[in-house]
Amino acid sequence: MEDDRSIMKASLSTLIAEKLKEDVWHRKIQLGERLVESEQASRFDVSRSTVREALKLLEHKGIVVNKARRGTYVSQFSRKDLEEIIDLRILIETKAFINALPRLDENHFKHVSEIVDEIKVKADKKLWNDLFDLDMKFHSYVVNLCGNVRMIKIYNSTQTQIRAYLGYIDQYYSNHQAFYKEHVDLLETLKEKDINKLKTVLRKHIEYADNTLIIATKEDNMKS
């Protein structure tokens, strides 16, 4: 019976952690905002210990930080943090995309094309949160075809932080269609299987938002 209660508690903690993570991604909870255990326990109608476990899960993913005698806060990104995340994305995704090129077949391109079609639909509806979710889906799909299990594991461990900062770059796009066009260009480059062109297009997509250098403009909005 005790084991059953432990499993239920663990499951609840995971579900709450997922919900809080999505709230951060969708900016319902802001970067730097304090997460009070008692408030979240009341919100989800669970014990404070269950919320505490959920917050520990988020802390492990780097999306919250626990400050001694002050409580738990949603992580903020300094310019250095952002530079490190972008550098890591470029490093891993470039290698992973190149490794995936010879593995990409007609069925893979069909699946990626369907993701890009979804991006078009969401761009027409001007839904940034959905667009960023689909961006992660696009990149993760290709990375997971690279054939390097350790690289995939490292990349997946960064997803929560990557998605968190993506939620704050919408203001640097002139419109939703520009975001869609970036993915059309990236898909076409993958189809061409030109490694040098892929490196350039992928790097620009990660570093820039509609031709604006992200790390040069985010300092005021994502301070540590």
- In which order are the strands of the major sheet placed? 1-3-2
By CATH, the architecture of the largest domain is named Up-down Bundle
As a whole number of angstroms, the C-alpha radius of gyration is: 19 Å
**What is the total number of structural domains?**
2
Major β-sheet profile: 3 strands, antiparallel
Give me the strand/helix succession: HEHHEEHHHHHHEEH
* Helical run tally: 10
- Please indicate the percent range of residues in DSSP E strands (runs of 2 or more): 5-15%
- What is the CATH first-level class name of the largest domain? Mainly Alpha
User: Whole-Å distance between the termini?
Assistant: 45 Å
Q: What is the number of beta strands?
A: 5
Helix content range: 55-70%
The fourth-level CATH homologous superfamily of the largest domain is: GntR ligand-binding domain-like
* Unreliable parts: none
**Structural class from helices and strands?**
mainly alpha
Shape: elongated
Mean model confidence by pLDDT = 90
> At the third CATH level, what is the topology name of the largest domain?
Four Helix Bundle (Hemerythrin (Met), subunit A)
